[in-house]
Amino acid sequence: AGGGRAALRACGVHNVCRLLSRRAHGFYARDAGVAHRKNLGLLRRIMCQESTKFKNVWTTHSASPIAYERGRIYMDNYQCCITSIAQQPRLIYQKSKCAKSEKIEDALLLECPLGEMLPSPSDYKASLIVLTVQNWLLRLSADSGEVLEKVYLAGSCCKFFRYLSWDTPQEVMIVKSAQNKLPAAARQAGIQQTVLFYLAVFQVLPLSFIGMLEINKKIFGNSVTDVAVSNGILIVMYSMGLVRLYNFKAILEQFMEQPFDLGQEFNWNGQVGVVGKYPFGLPCNIKITDTPPLLFEASSLENAFQIGGYPWHYIITPNKKKHKGVFHICSLKDNALAKNGIQDMKCCSLEPDWIYFHPDMSGRIIHVGPNLIKVLKLKEVKNHADQMEIAEDFTIVANRENCVNNNVTVTASGRVVKKRFTLLDDDPEQETFKIVDYEDELDLLSTVAVTQIGADGRAHLDFHCNEHGILLKSIPLKESWDVTYSHEVYFDKDLVLHIEQKPNRRFSCYVYQMVCDTARDDD
User: Fold this and answer.
1) Superkingdom of this entry's organism (predicted)?
2) Among 147, 213, 256, 364, which residue's Cβ finds the most Cβ atoms within 10 Å?
3) Cα(520)–Cα(523) distance, rounded to whole angstroms?
4) Tens of pLDDT along 476-523?
């Protein structure tokens, strides 16, 4: 306490809240993480200098998908790993080509938690959790591709596990099956399929089995189309646009029949085997026998539903096709529509606008249209503390200064010509926003805007101040950008990476590195 009072006196701060705020911003040199924050602040300033450029240092093409995870580029179905952190990307490992039966369906990067004692030295290094087409869950070393752990998932209950996701990032992982569908002959014979999905739940580092459960029509209804688990919530989606939320942790606790550990011998429903070993796999030890208590439900077009903000709000689109592109922001507490809570850009475009809660945990909302990005915030209505309103924090506008879209033109002879059509808001010849992302370590909002003239499309990546939206840096991408292709752009500190998918499963990867001192290098 005496030391805390001394720190307060030394810095002239006499308010505990201000002291905590100053600590969070790294004002005190002995605080953990201060050096890291200072280094990132320096990197941000260097990167945004006018003399700093981003140079295309590496390009590759592939007939198989290319993935990027935390400084590593994965190719050939994760058999080849290339580091992008070096001055020029270099090979980390190359494994022999795998058989079709070993094809990887999905993958998650697993990073060591801070401040925890782990059972194996390999647990302290990054690893890759992968799911194979034959229902094997493997943990691979991120540095060598070596198999560190392997778990067989599918026993007699399920043969098609396909998806990996986080319930709690880097803590609890969900392995989801494809939707169970009976063969046509079985359906014609009148056989009923009641189990739609299987979910296997794991704690990671060390990897441990929590349980497996089924999503059954008899419990959740006939019209279930998909399920997901996020932040302790089971999300069930229905064909008519309905979304229902359940307490996933409570389900695990209430309906767990018997806990099992990986490697444990078991005798379960007449089967004798070892948990996680071939051919038995995992027991379905969580049996939901009654409909769990409903936490919340909402109806939204295409099951689009998001929760965020402070206090908690959710975003939906009214469940009618005519309302596509209209977003309602409502209080989770009482379903009340926020003041100015209907957001509609009234876009006339081929691709719809999109909206989501800002990933910086500020509670703000990002609404992206073809030529406009709105960053919105929740705030209390004046003189009505129990009511919230949506206010504009800042906007980012596409550069369309040279765009002329007159419906009426006059020829040199004086003849008046009227156009029979109006350009779409996302017409390729006009600068259009395609990607918006957030770099959390540098606290920058990044946008990709594209203009296509003829067959040649040009894109640039812009960095904006996340707090005020001010443009800090613009990076032109050298390669042509075709708006009909699929694109991903990653901005990771001093690296920019562009992955492009062309027709006929042709993939390209372009890597840009930050370079300073450009006096001798025009690139």
Assistant:
1) Eukaryota
2) 213
3) 9
4) 999 999 988 999 999 998 999 999 999 988 999 999 999 986 555 454
pLDDT digits (tens, 9 = 90+) for 130-150: 999 999 999 999 989 999 999
Q: Which long-range contacts (CB under 8 A, 24 or more apart) does 238-243 make?
A: 238/303, 240/299, 240/319, 241/299, 241/300, 241/301, 241/302, 241/303, 241/319, 242/297, 242/298, 242/299, 242/303, 243/297, 243/298, 243/299, 243/300, 243/303, 243/305
Strands (E) across 96-156 are located at 104-110, 127-132, 136-141, 147-152
468 close to 481: Cβ distance less than 8 angstroms: no
* 3-state SS assignment for residue 244: strand
Residue for token pair 């025009």: 522
* CA neighbor of 251 nearest in space, from 291, 284, 307, 195: 291
Sign (positive or negative) of CA dihedral 6, 7, 11, 14: negative
The pLDDT tens digits of the residues spanning 430-467 come to 899 999 999 999 999 999 999 987 778 899 999 999 99
pTM of the full predicted structure? 0.85
Spatial separation of the C-alpha atoms in residues 358 and 342, rounded to whole Å: 18
CA distance 183 to 189: 10
Distance CA 132, CA 129 (A): 10
What letter would DSSP give residue 286? B
Report whether 451 contacts 460 (CB < 8 A): no
Write the single-letter amino acid at 120: S
